[in-house]
Each structure stands twice: as structure tokens, then as C-alpha cells.
Amino acid sequence: MFLQAIPSLLLIVVVVGGIVAGVTATEGAGAAVLYCLVLSLVYRSMTWRDFKEVVTRTVVATGVVMFLIAASSGMSWIMAYTGIPAAITDALLSVADSKALILLLMVVVLLVVGTFMDITPKSWPFAGSGTRISSSKGNVLL
Fold first, then answer.
1. pTM here?
2. How far is residue 82's CA from residue 99's CA, in Å, rounded to a whole number?
């Protein structure tokens, strides 16, 4: 019984071994998915109908995520083009003099913006704002 479980237990070796070997966690997860797919076909725990359903659900979920990233990237470009990050920076610098208060206000602004945008696109226009605030207030950001 234990010998039948050895291929499944090797999944940990695939993921951790891949990360230790220098691949990213995302690539290790992709390799783990492929390994699990092969195991499910070897153990005959997944039929081709199940496989088709899994692939369809994966493609739909990936499409939704990609659409959200594309929409937030467009919003990020519009914000950068109109100068909204610079306006937010100027507003933060004019309101607060304390480093702690500026940091608190930056967290609040990023929390509000984060409700509408994904983490990667929202950090593009605001990265320059943090640098300007840091240089003008003497290393607010760590």
C-alpha cells in the first residue's frame, strides 16, 4: 500500500526540489500541476471527460484574471498619463509633515486604490510617488 503512494509523495520533491534548483515558485507549481496530471492519468482517477471539464474551468478562470489585469493596466496608464500619482504625492506632502503620518496616508491611499486595481499595475504609477516622498522627507519608506 505504501509503495503505491510513493509517486504521489514525490510531488513534494518536485516542488521543493525545483525551487531549490533555482526555478521560481510559479514554475514549480506549474511542474507540480503537470506531475499531478500525469499521476491522475496513471492512477486512472481522472477520465478524459473530467480532464476536459478541468481545462475548461481553468481557461475561464484564467480569462477572468487576465481581463482584470488588462483593465487595471489600462486604468494605470490613464492615471499615469493624467498625472494623478503626482497630484496624490503633492497632496500628501502638503497635508503632512510627519514621516509617520505620511506613511499612514500612503497606506490609506494604496488601500483605497487597491480596491479597484490589482497589485502590480497599481504599484507602477505609485512607485514614483513613494520615491519623491522618500527623497523629500528623508527616507520615509524602508
1. 0.56
2. 27
